[in-house]
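Two entries, shown back to back:
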Amino acid sequence: MTKKLLAELLGTFILVFFGCGAAVLMGPQIGMLGISLAFGLSIVAAAYSLGAISGAHLNPAVSLGFLMAGRMPMAEFGGYVLAQIAGALLGSLVVFLIASGKAGFVLATDGLGQNGFGAGYLGEYSMGAALIFELIATFVFVSVILAATASHVSSASTALAGLAIGLTLTGIHLVGINVTGVSVNPARSLAPALFVGGKALSDLWVFIVAPLAGGAAAGLAHASGFFRPGGIEPAPGTGAATL
């Protein structure tokens, strides 16, 4: 179990370091497309390096989806979430330490890739738009993960699961980065918000509630058999799925 938790911590660190780091350190140079690719590629990197250890959830909403689908025991869920939050905090800290080495960097205005909505944030979309996007995007993201790593999937297809999941996250960013900065991950949202404070903290509840609801809904849909071909029964819960 300790090895799994360390893998989740390291994997979530990779996600935040790649994704939020790209936004903070290279945002003007690479734009939204580059930031989207950074988040997607971070998932690919973590999936193929750590997936065999912990399943590379890297996200409380994903772990909740596995729990609701019957593919993760409750005894592991809490530990995964704590490890993911710790990894995200470490990632945000490292990005902050690097960013603060540049003259003129101001945390309160330059930020750490935090999520948000409303006046003054990217496209200035409403709270309702942010909730809808995060709920639907997380449902899609977790559904793809559960389907791509299911027991009925062929070994050849499973070998490509990390790539499919990473590309899905890239696509989600391409659609919604101007809406909320894209969370679909409470740990990824919590960490930079704690550093930045202010509006980032007041907006944070959206990026906890909506992704968790979307992840839970995807897990329940998977448990119902919606994503399985006819006649195939789900495998009994055996802990975290491996990519």
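entry 2 starts here
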Amino acid sequence: MNKQEISAALKDYHWMINEIKRQRKMLENEVKSSITAQYGEESALPKPKGTNSDPVYREILRREKTHQWINRLQKKVLFIQEHVDCVRGERERAVLECLLDGMSVIAISRHMGLSERNIRAIRANIVDTMYENAGNAGFAGNAEIAG
């Protein structure tokens, strides 16, 4: 991941975690109810040419796309989780935890009693540290994580 992608992943971490949880819960419920195709005479009838108008097929495609999207989110979240420990400073660690909890720069500056400019500089240091750590671990520029 490049620095911009790391910065975006830090900013979006909180909602990505919530979305992954929500999608997993929905998939659990859908597995219990399951989708069934046509049976009997209807399954033997000719299907229309061109686009598939079968709602079950379209739902399967939608779920597959959702699954791929969730996998991309999980890779980004996993990247952040794997590189959290490389952040060493007390202020940097506090800012990182606030970012991961979904707090904005303004909220963090109020919470910590620091200027927004200072919080942005600390966030930039966090991104640099994660980027350097990822480069040492062989992750820098990984196109798979970028999705």
